[in-house]
Amino acid sequence: MDINGLIALWNHANSKVIDIRRATISPGESIRSYYVPSGLFLMSITGNAAASLGQKYYRMQRFTVLHAGKGTMLDIVAGSEGLDYYSVYYKASFQPLVSSELADYSYSITPDNPVSLHRILSEMFKEWEKRHPLVQLRVRTLLYQFVYELLNQLMRQGAGPAKRDLAAQVAAIIHEHYGDAITLETLSESLNYSVPHISSYFKLRTGLSPIDYLIKVRIDKAAALLRETDATLKEISFGVGYQDPNYLSRLFKKHKGVSPMHYREILVKEEKTEDNPSMTIKSSIVPSEPVDYTNINDNDYQQQGDGEGDLIMFKHSGNAWAPTVLLSVILLLSACGANGAETTGSQSSPGDTSATSKQLQSKIVKTVDGEVEIPLQPKRIVAGEYLGSLIALGITPIGTSDHHIQNPYFQQYLKDVENIGNGNGNMEKILALEPDLIIMDDFYPELNEKMSKIAPTVVVPYASLKTVHEEITYFGELLGREEQAKAWLADYDSRIASAKDSVLKVIPADSTFSVIEFKEKSIMAVGADFGKGGQPIYNGFGFKPPADIAAEMVDPGWASISAEALPKYAGDYIILTSDSETLDELKADPIWGTLPAVKNGHVFLWTSDRSGYWDPIAILNQTEELAAWLTNL
Q1: What is the DSSP letter of 452?
Q2: How would DSSP label each residue in 457-494?
Q3: How far, in Å, CA of 322 to CA of 316, rounded?
Q4: Mean pLDDT lowest for which of 389-393, 417-421, 422-426?
Q5: The pTM of the whole model exceeds 0.90
Q6: How far is Cα 341 from Cα 230, in angstroms, rounded to an integer?
Q7: Percentages of the chain per state (helix, strand, coil), in multiples of 5
């Protein structure tokens, strides 16, 4: 597909929406020999079908997008689940010098982030039904947004993964639509997963419920509006999705430690400090010690907080000039370019070899945010994420996130590593470390944009590197440590194989295993990709879950279950994560106590602070820990 051609075409298009429909085809029904009267975008929502556009055949599943040009013959035969879909008919005209051949090009796409596309189409359909005079203008704008998002995802697919993790999709919806009335039910409709699955999966992956994450994002947005505008609390409240300003005020104080108005008063005082030349002259470029934003710590997991809204507000106990310095450095860095590539302060002349020398010391890498110039041998790396791979490659960063600091498998490696804060860290602490490379995931896009003003920032999408081999190899290539990556993986494979051999000598290969988390009366069985011991049990040792649940453990990879369903999910051996239960308590429970694995003492019980990590270092240690338990039963 000529993506660049499609982009050029739409850049010169004058489009008009003709009709928008939401339709359903029942199982076995079909649409035959339908000649499309105009340009058509069709996006499936639920169900499945076989479709043909002209002589090309496509399989339609959840969130497949089809495009058909005017006059194309369309056939759709619904599958066993039927098909529910949106269709958008449009007419586009182009400038005379622009070739319009691609306008009639038929294609099918499975976007990596279908949620944003679905929400645009849903809004278009709702607007279309209003029949208001402004409808045409509104839906035309939304059509361009849809096309932009579609083409943008097609370009990103060329350099990134084909499918985003469900938790990342939920986070993306929240960041994009935090001002809307987001509920678990609307998330369920957008993602085509049940409410229990979305809620359980998001918490399994992030430690937060979707609603708690939404609240955090809204509070950070409110803080930014207090900092950057003169909006009233009522206006801010409506803007971030709350109808009651008093409710926002209570939430804000809980999360930030001060009321919204007090927060703004602090900013006014700091602005006066910024205008004081004598105070500025006494300042150094970077604060000698990081300054905490607040003494309130409401974080209960690794992925909380993007630093947005916390940039300028401090509870002062000392240096009142830190905000002034921070603002000055940010403005300087912004003037120098996003990646800090031209911060030398001098321009090279034709005979100057400094530019050539610099080229030899850096390289261009492709990321989801475009090309980034990074040092060939970075010396001061801040790792908001992916610390396990850096440790495996023999790299000790200068700073990492709080959840990595607490990782029990990293303790011997983090003696001199600075804690950059909750979530993926906060901006001031990272700035103070003067990094030459920053590594993040894409869970906090606003923070990443700020990070790129400090140092080259490589964003690796959350959960996009699916295996230990894939992750170690990627970072080995990124950081110029290919040989170290190969050596570490060879040792990893050897140790995993040794652990497997020792286990299979005492545990029959056809034994069934269940990996379960029991937390706050909720029970979840997980497969091979979600921590809790799943990687060692299913990937490392090769054991299988009970036959009745094998399909669920592959797709979607987890199941939220009731206590009454435990016998179905319980294998001969159970790897159980629980922060409150003991084996004796399980034996005394009227349901757990009936399970053969519990009766026989074939339960490995550990807490979430050990089982909840799935970085390469943790997986290797967990594999050997589980092997030691199994071989000593």
Answers
A1: T
A2: EEE--TT---SHHHHHHHHHHHTT-HHHHHHHHHHHHH
A3: 10
A4: 422-426
A5: no
A6: 35
A7: 45, 20, 35
The stretch 32-55 carries a mean pLDDT of: 86
The residues, any chain, with a CB within 8 Å of residue 548's CB and separated by 6 or more, are 568
Cα 306 from Cα 217, distance rounded (Å): 8
Per-residue pLDDT at 285: 33
**So what's the architecture of 3-158 in CATH?**
Sandwich (2.60)
- Cα of first residue to Cα of last residue in the chain, in angstroms, is 57
Say how many C-beta atoms besides its own lie within 10 A of residue 48's C-beta: 17
Contact of 218 with 240, CB cutoff 8 Å:
yes
For every residue of 317-355, DSSP letters joined together read SS-TTHHHHHHHHHHHHHHH-TT-TT-SSS---TT--HH
Give the CATH H-level superfamily of domain 503-630: Nitrogenase molybdenum iron protein domain (3.40.50.1980)
Angle between helices 260-274 and 322-336 (to 10 degrees): 70
CA 509 → CA 505, 554, 576, distances in Å?
9, 19, 20
The mean-pLDDT minimum among 155-159, 320-324, 609-613 falls in: 320-324
506-512 contacts at long range (C-beta below 8 A, 24 or more positions apart) = 506/630, 506/631, 506/633, 507/543, 507/573, 507/630, 507/633, 509/542, 509/543, 510/544, 511/543, 511/571, 511/572, 511/573, 512/543, 512/544, 512/545, 512/546, 512/547, 512/571, 512/572, 512/573
Give the SS3 label for residue 519. Answer: strand
Buried b (16+ CB within 10 A) or exposed e, 452-476: bbbbbbbbbbbbbbeebeebbbbbb
Residue ranges of domains in the chain = 3-158, 503-630
